[in-house]
Amino acid sequence: MISVQGLSKSYGGFRAVDDVSFVAEPGRVTGFLGPNGAGKTTTMRMITGLTTITSGTATIGGMRYPDIPNPGRHVGVLLDASAQHAGRTGREVLALSAATMGLPSRRVDEMLELVSLTGTESKRRVRNYSLGMRQRLGIANALLGDPSVLILDEPANGLDPAGIHWMRGLLKTFADQGGTVLLSSHLLNEVELVADEMVMIGNGRIVAQGDKRALLEQAGGSGCFVTGEDRDALATALRSAGLTHEVAGEGFRVDAEPRAVGRAAAQHGVVLVDLRPSEGGLERLFLTLTAPTQRDHQAAPAPAGSAEGVSA
Ligand SMILES: Nc1ncnc2c1ncn2[C@@H]1O[C@H](COP(=O)(O)OP(=O)(O)OP(=O)(O)O)[C@@H](O)[C@H]1O
């Protein structure tokens, strides 16, 4: 179990992580979700002893990470796949970790096979690895010591669709067998598909947390997402039709059925490139709760003369 209580980190006068508390339980995948710069990596670095804690506590199985003997045998960590020694081959990276942990060298071959790095690729220097290959190597390294806890920062970064699918299966199986998984991402869909529990963070503070289903119920509501060729014209069409909307990615989330949105767009001759029912209130909950920290949201111009325009 990972337990984080009142964890804070200040850089000078800036509070990157502010009084964060949550628990990641065994047998569950806990998704740690937040926009860019929300404080996910900083929190994970504090949990794993890589960044000093300003205040609060973080323990794994009741111990601070730096106090865990032979930590790689208990906790698998992947924080920055690009940070691996560029001059070593993938196999050397794993062999060194295996030796440090007192593991047999056959474990290296098992892990290379698990993450689908071929014999040829494993003999290439890491500097010549693609991002996806580095990520696979990082996952192999995290799993090498057969840990019961996994802490992974954006592990899907750079993986191809098949790789992402494979990783989801791997994490689910790991948790089903009693393991604890803490997985960060700024991509809601990625986390939504694999996580049992969610911890949402924005501007260094927890904005929501709990069982995924409970959060979905809390989010509730219906609606749709729409993207048009001309974003401003689409905003005008929605406003004219009296449809409440807010910026979501390249388009808008609208509190209305797709048909009403399609009609509003048609009346104004706006070409739609995407129109679909909301996949779930979770995305809305996330966007709403983290709205003040969403860069795209801040950057989006409010339609002229609109009071409702771009709402929080
Ligand atoms: N060493 C540091 N010195 C000063 N500020 C820092 C330092 N490390 C992180 N920060 C700041 O702390 C905030 C949180 O950063 P962090 O990397 O934890 O965010 P994140 O949620 O992981 O973002 P992303 O999804 O983009 O990876 C950011 O504003 C970042 O600039």
From TrEMBL:
Residues 293-312 are annotated as: Disordered. This is ATP-binding cassette domain-containing protein. Residues 2-228 form the ABC transporter domain. One of its GO terms (molecular function) is ATP binding. Keywords: ATP-binding, Nucleotide-binding, Transport. It comes from the Bacteria. The keyword Ion transport does not apply. Belongs to the ABC transporter superfamily. InterPro entries: AAA+_ATPase, ABC_transporter-like_ATP-bd, ABC_transporter-like_CS, P-loop_NTPase.
